[in-house]
Design brief:
This protein is α/β, with parallel strands linked by helices. The chain has six helices and 15 strands.
Length: 213
């Protein structure tokens, strides 16, 4: 894997909240709230890579040369359904961002992604920066499919933001798309025989929306 494209964010508050997220006794409302907090942290950290441009403004006393973001075209792209839990936290960092949804689910027999909903314009502005949101990067299939969808629409800069990732998923995603950036709070031990991350946190969608057994 390309270490220069992989960013691990280890702030103490992130580590605390990740422990709470992994705990199987954490109820759905707290689970969702914790994902929101973590999304805010990780989007904030990922934004450190944004390029700036100089701007001149007027203070109450004089003129001042400060900075603004080089692009105003920020897109948040949650992968349905678990990625929805990250939207509110991401909006706290980018309140004016656009949201484009990507609907993918993993076939439990083949472990391959199945596309069922994509709401993205055919073309996006040349300087668009997209932050894909998904709590987990497991096999990498859904992540690869999401990046494929965005690149087909001409997006040049893509960041994949997840809370936990498997080594296998990172390697596979960067093998297919070595030019994207991956941001995570934890690279876990491995995938099990069913394609789940170990130690992981279980099924993020089921736990967030209280739809598990």
């Amino acid at each position: 894997m390309s270490a220069q494209n992989l960013f691990g964010h280890k702030h103490p508050l992130i580590q605390r909240d990740m422990t709470r997220l992994r705990d199987k006794t954490t109820p759905s409302p707290i689970f969702r709230a914790t994902i929101k907090n973590l999304a805010r942290y990780i989007v904030y950290e990922a934004a450190k890579l944004l390029a700036l441009r100089p701007v001149t403004i007027e203070t109450p006393l004089t003129s001042f040369t400060g900075v603004d973001l080089q692009t105003s075209h920020i897109v948040l792209a949650p992968i349905l359904r678990a990625g929805l839990c990250m939207i509110d936290g991401a909006f706290e960092v980018f309140p004016h961002a656009r949201v484009h949804h990507i609907g993918l689910y993993r076939d439990e027999e083949t472990l391959k992604p199945v596309e069922y909903y994509v709401k993205i314009p055919a073309e996006l502005a040349n300087d668009t920066i997209v932050y894909i949101l998904d709590p987990m990067l497991a096999t990498g299939g859904s992540a690869i499919a999401a990046v494929d969808i965005l690149k087909q629409r001409g997006v040049k800069e893509i960041h994949f933001l997840c809370l936990i990732a498997s080594p296998e998923g990172i390697e596979r995603l960067l093998a297919h798309h070595p030019d994207i950036y991956i941001h995570t709070t934890s690279v876990d031990e491995k995938l099990d025989e069913n394609g789940y991350i170990v130690p992981g946190l279980g099924d993020a969608g089921d736990r967030a929306f209280n739809t598990g057994d």
